[in-house]
Amino acid sequence: MYWRLSNLYFWFFALLGGLLPYWSLYLDGQGFSYLQIATLMATIQLTKIVAPSVWGWLGDRTGQRVRLVRFGAIVGSLFFTGVFLEPGFYGLLLVMLAFTFFWNAILPLYEVITLRTLGTQKDKYGRVRLWGSVGFIVAVGLVGGVLELVPIQLLPWLLLPVFAGIAVSAFLVPAERGERKPAAPKGSLKEIVTHPAVVAFFLMNFLLQVSHGAYYTFFSIHLEQHGYGKLSIGLLWSLGVIAEIALFLAMHRLSRRFSVRQIAIGALTLTMIRWVLIAEVTDVVAVLIFAQCLHAASYGALHAISVQYIQGFFGKHHHGQGQALYSGLTFGAGGALGAWISGFLVDGFSTSAAFWGGAVAMLFAIGITWRGLRPPPSEEKNQSSYSGESSSSSSI
């Protein structure tokens, strides 16, 4: 059961490992402008606004999440093959919108499948999800090494085996029992999402992903402009994920010593420092390595407490929709807006200006978190219980 659950995480995040560090370089090599690159990269996040909510609702209503995951894996892979037609900017935009609409449906559904399959053994979740980080690191290293030897234009061909891995692993997922959502859940979704603490939580994560727009869109181009090779770029991306893994291994200790609000404010502050260092001290390798280690804060710590936050506020009746809203409003809307803003900053100024924009977004996020973030109900009732689960929250 452990390997059947871990397999899809490995291949799903391996695809991210091939896309995020190198896709912007591929688009640059295809002759697209910085604004066009920002728009195309934004589609990876943009469809998260709609796709997880649609598929999460279907999963909650039908209980057929495994079938939906398989459907998304197959159809998403088929749409990606449109890249090989070299359709130009607008054609590629449609291809990426179609591909990511189905691809972005997979993870929120699969998170619920994994947690429900584990049942009372949720402490094993971290070990299962850890393989997503492994997949990311392996793909980044292998793709980066190959791209040192072959032209960047061959990147789509390098990703085809990963799509095949996703499709095959989707059919190894344990089948569900087809449970349906109860007709009368406790508490309406509207009451939950309008709770002041939940509003602050979503605003914090929205701004966090806006600040990541420059990172996910132009970090590789920024490094290439400063003389880094493709393998070095890939290794720096991998370093961030390794730091994230180390964070998850220590998260339970942090959760015992600090509150959700303290962890969030500390992580946001470190994220702001990270963007400033990348913007201004890129040429100093030791500083850049330190900045990439801060990925443990800017993604790891904040995502760990966010998963628990959703469980605490949304409960099992709205868990799927809560996960979908988290993905859509933060990674989707925030990530897409951040990509576009960074595109305008790079086009008008420089890649460094885009990272400064991310630092400014973090200032606003710190203020909102300071004033509005409160613990989820589960933590208010049992702080020790929360502390025991936090280290198992996520990776990548």
Q: Kindly report the CATH topology.
A: Growth Hormone, Chain: A
Assign the structural class, choosing from mainly alpha, mainly beta, alpha/beta, alpha+beta, or little secondary structure.
mainly alpha
User: What is the CATH homology-level superfamily?
Assistant: MFS general substrate transporter like domains
Please describe the biggest sheet, giving its number of strands, its sense, and whether it closes into a barrel. none
User: Secondary-structure element order, as H and E?
Assistant: HHHHHHHHHHHHHHHHHHHH
Our measurement of the CA-to-CA distance between the termini, rounded to an integer number of angstroms, reads 22 Å
Biased composition (Low complexity): 384-396
Protein name: MFS transporter
Organism: Marinobacter salinus
InterPro entries: HcaT-like, MFS_assoc_dom, MFS_trans_sf
Describe the structure.
By secondary structure, this protein is mainly α. The chain has a single domain, classed as Growth Hormone, Chain: A (Up-down Bundle). The chain is 79% helix and 0% strand. It has helices at 2-19, 23-29, 34-46, 51-62, 65-80, 88-103, 106-118, 125-147, 155-170, 189-193, 196-211, 213-225, 230-257, 260-280, 285-293, 295-314, 319-348, 351-372, 377-381, 383-390.
In short:
This protein has 396 residues and is mostly helical.
Helix-strand blueprint:
Layout: H1 2-19, H2 23-29, H3 34-46, H4 51-62, H5 65-80, H6 88-103, H7 106-118, H8 125-147, H9 155-170, H10 189-193, H11 196-211, H12 213-225, H13 230-257, H14 260-280, H15 285-293, H16 295-314, H17 319-348, H18 351-372, H19 377-381, H20 383-390
Helix pairs in contact: 1-8, 1-9, 2-3, 3-6, 3-12, 3-17, 4-7, 4-17, 5-6, 5-7, 5-9, 7-17, 8-13, 11-16, 11-17, 11-18, 12-17, 12-18, 13-15, 13-16, 13-20, 14-15, 14-16, 14-18, 16-17, 17-18
Domain Major facilitator superfamily associated: 2-355
Region (Disordered): 375-396
Biased composition (Low complexity): 384-396
